[in-house]
Amino acid sequence: MKRANILAAALMAVAVVAVPAAQAQTVTVKVLGAGSSAMWQTAATGAFVQLAGAGGGHFTVKGTCTGTNNCAQIADSRSTSIVPQTGNLWVVWSSLTASSVKVWAYISVDSVVGNRTYFATTSTGTRATSLQLDPELDTTGPPAADSNLITSNLWGCDNGTTLSGGVCTGTPILPTVVFNALQNHIFTAGFTDIRPEDAYYASCRVLNPLDATGAADALGYGTIANCGSATGININSAFTTNYAQPVDFKIKGTDPITHGTIKGFKVVDVGAEPIVILVNRTNTTNGLGLGGATPVITDVELPVLQTLFSGAAPNSPNPGAGCFASQLNASATSNVNPILREPMSGTMNTFEHTNIRCSGDPLNETCLAGTVPDLSQESGIGQPTSTASPTNPLNLQCAGGGGSRMRVIGTGEMVGNGIKTVTDAIGYAFFSYGNVSKIAGSASYGYLTLNGVDGIVSGSNVYTNGQLPVCTSGAGTGVCPAAPGSSFTHLRDGTYRSWSVVRGVSDFSGANLTNLKALVAAIQNNVNLTTPDFVPFVSTGGDPGLQLVRSHFPQAGRTPNNGGTCGAEAGGDMGGYILTVNTCTTGEHQ
After folding, report:
1. Degrees (nearest 5) of the Cα angle 530, 533, 538?
2. Residue 506's beta-bridge partner residues?
3. Are 66 and 134 in contact (CB under 8 A)?
4. What is the 3-state secondary structure (H, E, C) of 514-543?
5. Which residue, 114, 317, 441, 510, shows the most beta carbons closer than 10 Å to its own?
6. Is the pLDDT of residue 544 over 80?
7. β-pairing, 72-76 with 57-61?
8. Using one digit for the tens of pLDDT, what is the confidence trace for 551-588?
9. Which CATH superfamily is domain 270-501 in?
């Protein structure tokens, strides 16, 4: 009934403005993207506030609809062995009463899948991936619990629902004209928190057969050398039935599955987001919550991170030391349980290369005193199989005893299944107010400074017992909105080490690139006005923008360039050392 009312209103409005009967309504998908959760919410509000205009609407959905069907999924046509990827979807559209309707949409998956979704190419050189939607979305509507995924404080309730008692109620509906435009539409962009070169490296690293010497470049989820496996062993969650499927792709040359020619691409930088170290503090007796409301465990040093997340591997700073809270504070005696992301995640790879794995190159600042090179969160796991625990799903006790390393798939699992449910858990996520909302503002959970530096403190705010901040956008107080230039003080000044630039990737030229650039500009213009989830890459709205870059290095066969005043960016940069924008140094480390 709600959908019928919306469509009837649209028809009436068209008659009022006297659109000729012969002039059909056109619906144009401006951007259809897939990728990182790090900017999913910020991109949604940017599109709605800055681009949709008067009369625009929005819709979000996750989970399963009719029967066991995914509500929204990515289909890769290159091979029937490639399993469709599901995720959280937002859709924004301009006024349905106009003769021309514009649509923007973004499905959240990990960064490697986001890159693969964009770069996958058919034998004829066209994009190989498309969006598939369950028909329920524009008829009966999805389950109410699977919609309104972004707080109504930011942009109101999803289409078909209204605010009642602080809760969005009613039947969420995707308008039929929007549904039809998106159904089976080819993806036009990827969203990623690592560069495409690094995403390709991460995929190849996963698919390489396990190196018997324990080299961190060969994790063993594939069986053919040089990333030759089209698909690999599924990487399983220790908490749910979710898994990540490794699938081969390339970013230049020919597609490894279809052998079609891959088109050229451009990367559009959005902004810089920090990785935050998350902890479960429910154990106030002898664990990470020691001290209760005023915990004494507030910081972690890099050697301890290496020890915990490598499972105290033989070549770690403290080989065989196990996973104990005493490594963080001598008065704590409980076990610590490190929660890891899947190795196809941009979050995992950023955390890995800024904190756990360093090259040993003297120009690479990631190897500090007390740390050792070439460790990995996958150290000591051995040859994974499809279902055998404790390695896959990963639930493996640390060498030397104590807690266990456990794997989650996705940020939602990291926060909701890992940190929120596992006593004395320590994990990580790209900070955004949406990502940490389930555990923000609570003494039971929190975050640690890294090497004594707070990664998310903003302006005059201070570290307050490590509680994660709550966004109060719309209330006129607190951390949201943010004064331009005030967010992430120590990311901006270069003293916080664990961060990456979130980006969009699209065609080298043409309408898809133009539309992506318009969306990125909207996200940047809107970020300080709603949820300041990142430091904008460019100067905007009085914000000076990011004054730093990470050094670039040879990756995926591309010659490095740091961008800024030195020209276009190229090459990998995850874990690169921090440079000011007026510094040009290339080929720093591999």
Report:
1. 90
2. 266
3. yes
4. HHHHHHHHHHHHHHHHCCCCCEECCCECCE
5. 114
6. yes
7. unpaired
8. 888 888 888 888 765 668 889 999 888 888 765 543 33
9. Periplasmic binding protein-like II (3.40.190.10)
pLDDT for the residue 364:
47
Helices (H), 302-353: 302-309, 346-351
Burial class (CB in 10 A: 0-12, 13-18, 19+), 24: exposed
130-187 pLDDT tens trace = 999 999 999 999 988 999 999 998 899 999 999 999 899 999 999 999 999 999 999 9
C-beta of residue 497 within 8 angstroms of C-beta of residue 451: yes
At 1 the three-state DSSP class reads coil
Question: Locate tokens 């190419």: which residue?
Answer: 121
C-alpha span between 4 and 9 (Å, rounded):
9
Of 156, 148, 166, the closest CA to residue 49 belongs to 156
* SS3 category, 352: helix
Q: What is the pLDDT of residues 401-413, one digit of tens each?
A: 999 999 999 999 9
How far apart are the C-alpha atoms of 167 and 107, rounded to whole Å?
A: 24
Other beta carbons within 10 Å of 278: 26
Strands 299-300 and 337-341: unpaired
| Strand 561-562 versus strand 569-570 pairing type | antiparallel
Overall pTM surpassing 0.90 (yes/no): yes
Write b or e for each residue in 313-326: b if 16 or more Cβ atoms lie within 10 A of its Cβ, otherwise e: beebbbeebbbbbe
Burial of 83: CB neighbours in 10 Å, binned 0-12, 13-18, 19+: middle
Helix (H, G, I), strand (E, B) or coil at 418: helix
Tokens representing 275 are 């990785």
Return the residue matching tokens 């324990």.
Answer: 214
Element (H, E) at 503: strand 499-507
Structure tokens at 211: 């190196």
Smallest Cα–Cα separation from 577: which of 366, 360, 359? 366
Reported as a pLDDT band with limits 50, 70 and 90, residue 213 is low
The residue ranges of every structural domain in the chain are 2-192, 270-501
Predicted local confidence at residue 587, as pLDDT: 34
The two three-digit tokens of residue 47, written as one number: 């599109």
* Residue 215 reports pLDDT greater than 80: no
Closest among 194, 178, 201, 156 to 39, alpha carbons compared: 194
Which pLDDT band, with edges at 50, 70 and 90, does 21 fall under?
A: very low
Q: Check whether the bond before 246 is cis (ω within 30° of 0).
A: no
